[in-house]
């Protein structure tokens, strides 16, 4: 029986595995290679890793985990999770079954893009969701925001830190009220209400917005707030709803780390994973010590 099964080997899962491995815990970490930033060519804002390709980051992480014989890494999908008494059993896509004392879900999230031609294609290549991750590379360039109402206004104002040439595309009638509009005007931010038909560009790079009225607006980058789908399917299988007030563990023996809960950064996910790794080790140690104390009393 294992000490911990970790589902997801992104920054959060691998960081937890490192702490647990170094605590001499037996760990199985499983990953099916669908990281949130798969479309991104370079990751920014993480000290000592600024500009590194996410694939290289993951390769290095995996290489470092290999130094610990008590950590097993598998490229596989965890299809199913069950809880029986105090143990967790998972089934992998190779049909193997594994049991552990604790389960850590570091499964990340998926960004949901608008169903408009070009968004999927250019996400990470001129279409971005995070100015802190990708704003610097397009500083002082013509930028667009896709958004409406107060959220659209807020994102446009936020982007002023990176460029003064900003437009807001509301993709339909504007819900930006007169006060917000006056504020945008004050910063020379124009509103385009026409629906967007598609995004166009080169093979690798977004270059322009095409509107339903046929007009074309060249822009260096487009920022939007994506919807987030947290990967919580395994929690559902365990019949474990998210508690109203988030806590770790979210149920006895079940932990979450990284974007699946709330982080939006690689560095944040790494920090989260490390903390949860230590927390799991402490909980297991408490259990171990209680058990040995009980058996001592029985003697
Ligand atoms: C376009 C884009 C650009 C970004 N740029 C930056 C940036 O420059 N700097 C920055 O700090 N952050 C950036 N981010 C955010 C960053 O990607 C996330 O914050 C980070 O990846 C979160 O790490 P995580 O470990 O929680 O999740 P992830 O990295 O998403 O890892 C989760 C892993 O779990 C695996 N998984 C899920 N379910 C299963 C299952 N059932 N079985 C097996 N494996 C499973 C997935 O395959 C995935 O590998 C960007 C995000 C996007 C979308």
TrEMBL record:
SUPFAM superfamilies: FAD/NAD(P)-binding domain. Keywords: Flavoprotein, Oxidoreductase. Transmembrane segments: none annotated. The keyword Protein biosynthesis does not apply. Gene3D superfamilies: FAD/NAD(P)-binding domain (3.50.50.60). This is Oxidoreductase. It comes from the Bacteria. Pfam families: Pyr_redox_2 (PF07992). InterPro entries: FAD/NAD-bd_sf, FAD/NAD-binding_dom, Ferredoxin-NADP_redctase_2. Residues 3-265 form the FAD/NAD(P)-binding domain. PANTHER family: THIOREDOXIN REDUCTASE 1-RELATED-RELATED. One of its GO terms (molecular function) is oxidoreductase activity.
